[in-house]
Amino acid sequence: MRCRKLFTLLLVLAACGAALPITAQAPATPAPPMAERQPVQASVVEAAAKEVDALAEGILARGVPGLAVAVVHGPRTVLAKGYGRTGGRQGERIDADTAFRIASLSKGMAGTLAGLLVERGELRWDMPLNQQLPTFQLADAAGSAQLTVRDVLAHRLGLRYHTYDRDLEGDTPYPLLAARLSEAPLLCSPGECFGYQNVAFSLIGDVVFAVTGDFFTRQVENRLFAPLGMTNATYGREGLEGSPRWARPHVRTNSGWVAVRPRENYYRVPPAAGVNASINDMAIWAKAQLGHRPDVLSPALLEDLHTPLVRTPDQLTGSPWRRARLRDAHYATGWRVFDYQGEKLVYHAGAVQGYRGMIGLLPRRDVAIVVLWNSESALPSGLMPTFLDRVLDLPGEPWVDLRNGR
Fold this sequence. Notes:
Blueprint: H1 2-14, E1 20-21, H2 42-61, E2 66-73, E3 76-84, E4 99-101, H3 106-119, H4 129-132, H5 141-144, H6 149-153, H7 165-169, H8 174-179, E5 193-194, H9 203-212, H10 216-228, E6 234-235, H11 236-241, E7 250-253, E8 256-259, H12 270-273, E9 275-278, H13 279-292, H14 299-305, E10 310-311, H15 320-325, E11 326-331, E12 336-340, E13 343-352, E14 355-362, E15 367-373, H16 383-391
Antiparallel strand pairs: 1-5, 2-3, 2-15, 4-9, 6-9, 7-8, 10-11, 11-12, 12-13, 13-14, 14-15
């Protein structure tokens, strides 16, 4: 009983479908060293950025409330721009410093923080989860005893896809849901299949608290946001609403898009979906993930984080660009890794009520794009594949169909 109380206390303090079988561990495909990269010519990136800029204006004209786009090429920001309005009472214009919720793009930050702790000897990837969370257990007690920190960050716990997300959306507190993981049905033995998680993924926050004695969110702020200069990046609804300028979420009604107050639920799982950031912040983040801030993120760390761990074939469908362009798909450590027509794409998307976002990096080409928007429109999701096609000289496809609203 005392151990269970200790675990529950850690959960409270640190809180601020179907699974797919693993056929084999994926071969490592690390980001190439700087000397081996084949960067896209600056003129190609600039032309692609101009096309994205024009399409973003077209999307705005279709009635989408607002969005922001960043394109980076090596250490240089080629485009960082906001479009539309925040939805606030005064109807402020969205600019490059306007904060958005980035939802599951937060997972890459959780994985990166864990990597920093591993690099500095405060954590181990192969550390059993119950070494720091002594009463952690899944329905398969013997199997869950073998689960590691890396398994959490790669969604390899054996749980069904999105376990307890509905309860989280129904405002059940995270610590109660985490404590109930021992009752959750399993689709496979722990560690032997992929199932995307938010509640279980956020156990990494409890592990960080256990090994550092500090809150997960503060560790990210001190070890990532501050050293990188991500000055508008925050955690939680209070952080968003306290921003100098922030984009309100919009939901579709019979009379069009309507601004609403951000919901609290997914903010209760900070490692999975708790970050707010501007497009300028995300441009900095993208350049750091491409290797241009070695003072904060070492090349070895980035190689580790971006190494595929488990195949995720469900990602090969679901949208036209995925069906047409992806040859293979994996999950790494807080990141998805796709084979985009023979090119390694390090990627993540995110979605919560009233917000969407995506980030895509081509490490070999030393280029990246980030798109954030404050509605649930599907139109902006075509900007990323449009940009990737242009910089990779692939045949153009109408991923953003302004005529038909797709």
